[in-house]
Amino acid sequence: MTTMTMSTSPAPAARIQPGRAVEIADGVHWVGVLDPALRSFDIVLSTANGTTYNSYVVRGEKGVAVIDTVKEAFAPEFFKRLESVCSYDEITTIVINHLEPDHSGALPELMKRAPQAHVYLSSRAPMMFKALLKSTDVTPSAFTLVKTGSSLDLGGRTLAFYQTPFLHWPDTQCTYVPELALLFSGDVFGCHFCDNRLFNDKVGDFRFSFEYYYAHIMRPFRQHVLTGLELLEPLELQLIAPAHGPVLRQNPRHYVQRYRELAEGRLDDQVVGEKTLLIFYISAYGATRRMAEAIAQGAEEEEGVRVSLYDLEVGDVSPFIDLIETADGIAIGSPTINGDATKPVWDLLSSLHTIHVRGKLGAAFGSFGWSGEAVAMMEDRLKGLRLHLPFDGLRLKLVPTEEELAQCQELGRKLARHLTTPPDELFAEAA
Question: What b-and-e string marks burial along 53-64, b requiring 16 or more CB atoms within 10 Å of the CB?
Fold first, then answer.
């Protein structure tokens, strides 16, 4: 695709000023807002540097387009910036790449101020759009649904749409301006990092924020990230304008490449030609540890399976997440203490929502003294994460006997055999 070169005017030396837009490319302005005081986003993310809610204006010969809005509480500052670069009657187009409230909060008011503007949404967005406007009277004529391959001519500036569902909501899309090789990427390639110097070559070091954002927002949708990259990687990229964090004008391709590296997994090539079974355990008096060791011993008898044993008493479960994402099966053991599994086990299980584990082989085991609820509770969580649990969990009272350890070994053999047996043979055995 032939493109024009983006404006090479000198980078603004001044920091973002209240009520003033910032030009990021020829005829394109940032009209977002800063939220430096935010310390928690969507409950689960820490934001030590706050965040930004990025909105953009694209001016064409036929009209003006607004790309995304901002969180409702920050709407007054957004409208001041917007008014600094255009009048409301010039706005012909509103594109919402993602309808989460931090990007669409000011949309209802913008539609009132620019009633002639037409809204463009991804094909999966109508229900959320209607819910946002709190109205069942929103007719299809109020918006246009777009898909990959759809485009809009602003006059000298084209808006081309690329559907990137589940990055990280079902309705997510990206918008590309080919004349400027500029990608409005939505949440993709963004991060929670607030710095009023705006551009990636001017702000502080945000590498940690970029990686942290990917790990908590995008990593659960790893396969969708890979699918989205297939769409976006072929594009010429002079500038990436995400919905959060710095505008990426220096080496924007680097951030696309980093997504590829993160999505493909850092450990994929460490074990070649073998299935991997990870066995995690924590043990109060050694009984659950002996069960784990016996399961490992049984599993190791099966050729073609690499078995690893890990004690969760180390406390920090974060090093195990990459291992689990690239493993074929996991077994988790815990004693029952006060009617529950232990905290390190729940720490590990609660971390699995950030990675793709659906369909992996799973199992639970543990020793108990009184009631023994831990195994069933761990199984419920593994099933909730959509792991495949073909075998009942193993729960043994107090210190396991030699006969009971033999049961553990047999569970290990079954797990390993399940990993190496073709699906059609497993189906035949079950029948």
Answer: bbbbbbbbeebb
Q: 264: which 2 tokens? A: 């493909």
- At the second CATH level, the architecture of 22-264 is 4-Layer Sandwich (3.60)
Among the residues of 239-330, which ranges form H helices? 252-264, 287-299, 319-326
More confident residue, 326 or 282: 282
Question: Do 22-264 and 275-420 have matching folds?
Answer: no
- The mean of the pLDDT values for the chain is 89
* pLDDT recorded at residue 139: 53
Q: Any idea which architecture 275-420 has in CATH? A: 3-Layer(aba) Sandwich (3.40)
Nearest residue to 218 via CA among 180, 146, 165? 165
Angstrom distance (rounded) from CA 59 to CA 62: 8
**In this predicted model, which residue has the larger pLDDT, 45 or 155?**
155
Q: Is 112 exposed, middle or buried (0-12, 13-18, 19+ CB in 10 A)?
A: exposed
Decide: 332 and 382 in contact? Cβ < 8 Å: yes
287: nearest Cα among 351, 339, 337, 334: 334
371 forms bridges with which residues in the sheet? Answer: none
The domain segmentation of the chain, as residue ranges, is 22-264, 275-420
